[in-house]
Amino acid sequence: MEHKGTVTIETDRLCLRAFELKDIQAAFRNWTSDERVTEFLRWPTHTDISITEKVIKDWIEESKKPDFYQWAIVLKDIDEPIGTISVVDKNEALNILHIGYCIGSKWWHRGITSEAFAAIILYLFEEVGANRIESQHDPNNPHSGNVMKKCGLVYEGTLRQADFSNKGIVDACMYSLLKEEWKNKKGSLQVNFYDKIEDELLKFAVIISKHKGKWVFCKHKERDTYEIPGGRREPGETIFETAKRELQEETGALEFQIFPVCVYSVIGKTRVNQSGKESYGMLYFADIQSFEKELHSEIECVNFFEDLPTEWTYPEIQPLLIKEYLSRLENQHV
């Protein structure tokens, strides 16, 4: 590997950079003193800012070395670090890098950690020359594993009593991603799900719908495939207003109940997102009681299905949205 150190990396919401002395207070306030953050980690909760000060000063000194990687995860909206992501172990002979991360609990479930992890994966594969990137988590902390899966890492198995943390001796769920796998995945779409995210990032609303127990799908005038009702958020709208408008425009729904399911995102180029960057939308479910007699949009017709159709407009996205809805319904999360 050709080590290049903790370079600055920017994403839509984040600046990943080396730590600075000015970060000490924010680090103590945002995560090092947070008992929820340290529950599954090896280091104890910092009870005094002097502990955080010593750690960060050590990181600043170590960051002078090209093989040291310890990024501050700086949220651009507040311009202060809310966590850290780092290379915690390496195998030079096999070009393996092991990643660890943590952010303050206030910012959990917003896709921030996976955004940071995806950014350093790109850097470590393309610039540093890693061949395998790996990470692990306690089986009792599955949310950490979700970050790994969202970034394309593959579950390899659980090592029994192979790690230690503030919980004692624990099992370790191992995940990894090979450079060849990562290169093959770059051209395909990736769909992620989150519980919440900043409202201004929500650009689309998609509404999974049923009428009298049957799935509701739309057929566009210019296509021979079926799609879930939905569309782009317009200026001045709340995302809930977008969902109701799109449902009414595309299905002609008159009477309905609509509920939020979760946030979804898509990484990769699509017809509505040519940049390929991660775009976010809100997923809803609607139970429709009645419809208008005719449609007044680009939709040719609305069809009802006992079983899900096989001719999808977005086959890499829509089935995954319905799968997530059904999973959350089964687990009573919606």
Discrete helix count: 8
Looking at CATH, the homologous superfamily of the largest domain is Gcn5-related N-acetyltransferase (GNAT)
Structural domain tally = 2
CATH topology of the largest domain: Aminopeptidase
What is the 3D shape? Answer: elongated
Mean pLDDT: 93
Q: What ranges have pLDDT less than 50 throughout 5 or more consecutive residues? A: none
Give the termini separation: 46 Å
- Radius of gyration from CA coordinates: 22 Å
Topology:
Layout: E1 9-10, E2 14-17, H1 24-32, H2 35-38, H3 49-62, E3 70-75, E4 80-91, E5 96-103, H4 112-128, E6 132-137, H5 142-150, E7 154-165, E8 168-178, H6 179-185, E9 190-194, E10 202-211, E11 214-220, E12 226-227, E13 230-232, H7 239-251, E14 253-267, E15 279-291, E16 299-305, H8 318-330
Parallel strand pairs: 5-6, 10-15
Antiparallel strand pairs: 1-2, 2-3, 3-4, 4-5, 6-8, 7-8, 9-14, 10-11, 10-13, 11-12, 11-16, 14-15
Protein described:
This protein has helices at residues 24-32, 35-38, 49-62, 112-128, 142-150, 179-185, 239-251, 318-330; strands at 9-10, 14-17, 70-75, 80-91, 96-103, 132-137, 154-165, 168-178, 190-194, 202-211, 214-220, 226-227, 230-232, 253-267, 279-291, 299-305. The protein folds into 2 domains: 9-186, Gcn5-related N-acetyltransferase (GNAT) (Aminopeptidase, 3-Layer(aba) Sandwich); 192-330, Nucleoside Triphosphate Pyrophosphohydrolase. The protein is of the alpha+beta class. The protein is elongated. Helix content is 26%, strand content 37%. The model has no long low-confidence stretch (mean pLDDT 93). Helix 1 (24-32) crosses helix 3. The relative contact order is 0.11. The N and C termini lie far apart (46 Å).
